[in-house]
Amino acid sequence: MTTKNIYKHSILILDFGSQYSPLIARRVRELGIYCKLYPWNVSKEKIILFNPKGIILSGSPESATLFNAPCISEYVFDAGVPVLGICYGMQIMAMQLGGKVEISNKCEFGHKQVKIEKDITLLRDIQDNISFDGKKLLDVWMSHTDKVTLLPPNFINVASTENCKFAIIANIYKNFYGLQFHPEVTHTTQGISILKRFIFDICHCNSEWISVNIIDHMVETIRHQVGNDKVILGISGGVDSAVTAILLHRAIGDNLVCVFIDNGLLRLNEACQIKNIFKKIFGLKILHVQAEKRFLKSLSGVVDPELKRKIIGRIFIEIFEEEANKIRGVKWLAQGTICSDMIESSVSITPITNIIKSHHNVGGLPKKLKLMLIEPLKELFKDEVRKIGVELGLPDDIIYRHPFPGPGLAIRILGNVTKEYADLLRIADAIFIEELLIANLYNKISQAFAVFIPVRSVGVMGDKRKYEWIIALRAIETIDFMTAKWVNLPYEFLSYVSNRIINEAQGISRVVYDISSKPPATIEWE
Ligand code: XMP
Asked: Which residue out of 87, 164, 258, 339 is catalytically annotated?
């Protein structure tokens, strides 16, 4: 089988530290084009190696007017490919090519209207409105204080706003373009159309970065990489490990051995569901390890959230090692690591000085097991992983399921974890999720779950007094899980869910709804 070269038509994004840089990458990938974010000071050799069809320069919180402002490698202008500067990217390009940038006394922030004075390929057939004097208008999103005040030689002015004479500039001979606004944000209605013109009509890219091609390429690469060796993979039921499993299975069949550790802290029927999907539907080889007792025993009497996380992480690694040692001839450990938006961007990374929670995942495994590491999804964003999951035939249940933390229900049961609490929490959580699905709310929110509060409260049912536990419900909306807003669920909905939980989960007398956003609260309660 010959696979398409998914990296042949690629765009390089030079990151000057804008909050929107990862969004530019997302937009380009959505158009079916491979792209990568590199820090602004990446070496010429790395750019040559990447061999892009075009280069995009991101925005920045910096000012191009400062002496030591981050600048564009001269090689970018000699690379012989089109360049698109966005906001700061346009200003620093103008400055370096002989124009002028000044600090303005009026900053432009938010929605603005851009009037197009000259029609160029970048804007062909693109408009939102027409002005009284017959000029094309665009609704765009601006966020700048500095502005270009003198064009570099061979540049023309293409469009202006009330306060910004040079809102779009171009050197059409060299194919260098500058946009003072942000085409990557959805508030710029024609933003995607402009990026399309740049990528397809100016850089002449073809969309090869699409799920079927990515899958073919990955399957081939995995086969080439591991040959006839055995690979071990821990599956959790999350979309990343699921997609990794199916891809590997497609590539190497039964040489893939999956380990599924049931820690007794999973959601209702989750273990069955996982076995059913992976074993029965996809025919994967799965070692199902029943370890509820071992986890609960080690957690008994432990109330500190960090300690709970550490214990769970340690036992997980112990069990995984035991299972790996039982399989003869295994040489590779597969992981479902995906590309975090910032991975290649050294400018935007802030040092972590204060660890709020130590997230448990299997990151500690490779060194301990002395296995070679294979991470097929390393270059993909979450939405790309989901699209590939759909293409591979994974059910929606797995693909669009809300995230679930590695330590599972242990960090949703406050303090001491017991089987009684976990069983009650599972029922309450399942009712909440079931009702969200029925009410068509589940896919509109980012994460929802129930929390067990081990405090007794008085209630009355029939004529009988109850003195039982409390459940809290949490639903949040977020883009990146770094900040989150609690969801304003309808009162009638909450009331119905509360009623069902108190009636069906014997041992719960009260249900409360969490109205804390992040920050100051975190998403999980522990
Ligand atoms: P917090 O509670 O930190 O949660 O606001 C942010 C997101 O991370 C998930 N989370 C975890 N995921 N291991 C994980 O794999 C963990 O230890 C862990 N702790 C929190 C949480 O569910 C939310 O989506």
From this structure: 87
135-153 pLDDT, tens digit per residue, is: 999 999 998 889 999 999 9
Q: Which two tokens stand for residue 281?
A: 């539907």
CA of 375 to the centre of ligand 1 (A): 21
Measured distance CA(26)–CA(500) in Å, rounded: 41
Residue 39: CB atoms within 10 A of its CB come to 18
pLDDT in tens, 308-356: 999 999 999 999 999 999 999 899 999 999 986 444 444 443 333 455 6
- Are 215 and 198 within one domain? no
Q: What is the pLDDT of residues 426-449, one digit of tens each?
A: 999 999 999 999 999 999 999 999
Residues 216 and 138 in one domain: no
Q: Is 361 close to ligand 1, i.e. is its CB under 6 Å away? A: yes
CATH number, position 116: 3.40.50.880
Nearest CA to ligand 1 atom 11: 405
Judge whether 522 lies within some domain. no
The structural domain count of the chain equals 3
Q: SS3 of 65, please?
A: coil
Final residue of a domain: which of 400, 433, 448?
Answer: 400
- In the three-class reduction of DSSP (H, G, I as helix; E, B as strand; rest coil), residue 248 is classed as helix
Host domain of residue 81: 10-202
Peptide bond into 519 cis (omega under 30): yes
Q: Are residues 60 and 173 in the same domain?
A: yes
Alpha helices in 301-356 (DSSP H): 305-326
Number of Cα atoms under 13 Å in the Cβ half of residue 389: 26
509 is in an annotated binding site: no
